[in-house]
Write a structure and sequence with these properties.
Layout lengths: L2 H70 L7 E2 L29 E3 L2 E5 L3 E2 L2 E2 L7 E5 L4 E7 L5 E9 L7 E8 L9 E6 L10 E8 L4 E7 L12 E10 L29 E3 L14 E2 L5 E5 L10 E4 L8 E6 L5 E9 L10 E6 L2 E6 L8 E9 L4 E8 L3 E2 L7 E2 L2 E9 L11 H13 L1
Antiparallel strand pairs: 1-13, 2-7, 3-6, 4-5, 6-13, 7-12, 8-11, 8-13, 9-10, 9-12, 14-16, 15-18, 16-17, 17-26, 18-23, 19-22, 19-26, 20-21, 20-23, 24-25
Length: 450
């Protein structure tokens, strides 16, 4: 190759290398400029990210503190036995031989004040054997003594407390059940009721009772207190099996003015207890253990279940006790001067109750008694009462005509069972559904005479 061409190619190669180096340098400088520009643009965003990180850290710390506080608070109470509600959890030092409780925290999950005893099944006091309703242990409250437990509930809801109770020395013993604010002073309560233990409803010497309250706060203290003052400071009621249930008022059916007429909504019932639950006097239908209903009289009525009693329909019903002293009632919505029909199921609880069984029924200004007539294939019958409403609200009520007792012990109180209570406008096409066989025969006879 000629020398001139070699020099030319050499020059071109060197020129190419220099040009490439210059282009690379230019691109590098441009890249650095772009990075500086991006950095200048992102600088405020980086600051925002920094503050966002700080904010998220503070929020996490706040949530951690909230969780710690929530964890320290008692969990929301569930339906059923409250914590150590049967008193079968042993104290740290074991169950005392003499029953005496040494300090306010000796009963696990409960606080005590005054003379409080953890009694044992079969324990004697003089010549008397102390009654333990269920299990092996229960609590006896002496003069002005009390036990309490803090519960977390839902504000605005109605709760029913079920507990078993028995009296010991005194004929006129009673027990006060109440709820109070956690930090309330002694005697300051949100709701309270004295439950009379004077009447023995069965020969076993104890009964389950129910009492309801509306939760005005989310955190309350459930208190059981002996309000009595006896000569013997250890005398006092025995309590056991304390449970709670959040109640819901059933919606009123379109074809029935009665709320909870089938009695399916009510207090907590223990499956291993065959005595039902007594509903003592309660005139406030808004805070009733049997939603929609009130117990007007001095004596209780019995809430019964299909596991231990004959129930006309569903799983629950009401047994009327103590004659006129056991009245259950409800104010139902009506229209003045309009005809209505009150119908219900009447029957036998299957608890060996001595006949005759009869109830007095009220609907507005109408009253009529109905006798239960035992039938071969059924333990209940449908009966009804026509009435004309006089106002926008009409009282319907029931009580047992007789004071009935069981045939096997002649002492335990019993009575007729009612269920499926309905009140509807008498112009309804369903009017015939409320009557029993006897009423149907009566209608046929009238038609035949006409």
């Amino acid at each position: 190759m000629p020398e001139k061409n070699i020099q030319k190619h050499t020059f071109s190669f060197h020129t190419y290398r220099k040009r490439k180096k210059w282009e690379i340098k230019e691109r590098t400088l441009e890249g650095e400029k772009e990075e500086r520009k991006i950095g200048e643009i992102m600088a405020p965003n980086n600051d925002r990210c920094k503050w966002s990180s700080i904010f998220m850290l503070l929020l996490s710390l706040s949530l951690a503190v909230s969780v710690a506080v929530a964890t320290d608070k008692a969990p929301l109470v569930e339906d059923g036995l409250v914590i150590n509600g049967d008193f079968e959890t042993s104290p740290s030092s074991g169950f005392p031989d003499d029953g005496a409780v040494d300090g306010p925290g000796e009963i696990p999950s409960w606080k005590s004040n005054g003379t409080v005893e953890l009694i044992n099944s079969g324990q004697k006091q003089g010549g008397m054997i102390l009654i333990v309703p269920q299990g092996r242990h229960a609590v006896r409250l002496g003069n002005d003594a009390e036990i309490s437990q803090e519960l977390t509930v839902e504000k605005g809801f109605v709760y029913s407390v079920t507990f078993s109770a028995a009296r010991t020395c005194a004929q006129l013993e009673s027990i006060n059940v109440s709820v109070a604010s956690v930090n309330a002073n002694e005697g300051d309560t949100l709701a309270s009721r004295d439950v009379d233990l004077q009447t023995l409803y069965n020969v076993q010497g104890w009964d389950p009772y129910a009492w309801a309250f509306e939760a005005e706060e989310d955190h309350v203290r459930l208190v059981f207190k002996n309000p009595g003052m006896e000569d013997d400071p250890t005398c006092g009621p025995i309590i056991d099996d304390i449970a709670i249930k959040k109640l819901f008022t059933p919606e009123k059916p379109k074809d029935n003015a009665v709320i909870n007429g089938d009695f399916e909504e009510g207090p907590w019932m223990f499956r291993n207890t065959s005595l039902g639950v007594l509903l003592p006097t309660n005139l406030d239908e808004e805070t009733s253990s049997l939603p929609g209903w009130t117990v007007e009289s001095n004596r209780a009525v019995r809430f019964v279940d299909s596991d231990h009693f004959s129930v006309p329909g569903g799983k629950r019903a009401v047994e009327l006790l103590s004659g006129k002293e056991g009245i259950i009632s409800q104010m139902v919505e009506t229209k003045a001067d309009k005809p209505y029909l009150l119908s219900f199921s009447l029957g036998h609880a299957g608890d060996k109750c001595k006949e005759p069984l009869a109830i007095m029924t009220f609907a507005g200004d109408q009253a009529q008694n109905f006798h239960y007539m035992a039938q071969a294939n059924s333990t209940f019958e449908k009966v009804g009462l026509n009435f004309t409403a006089k106002a926008d609200r009409t009282r319907v009520a029931f009580y047992s005509v007789y004071y009935n007792t069981r045939t096997d012990d002649m002492s335990s109180l019993c009575g007729p069972v009612i269920d499926d209570v309905r009140v509807w406008f008498a112009g309804s096409k369903k009017i015939g559904a409320g009557f029993g066989f006897g009423v149907s025969v009566f209608v046929l006879l009238v038609i035949g005479l006409v």
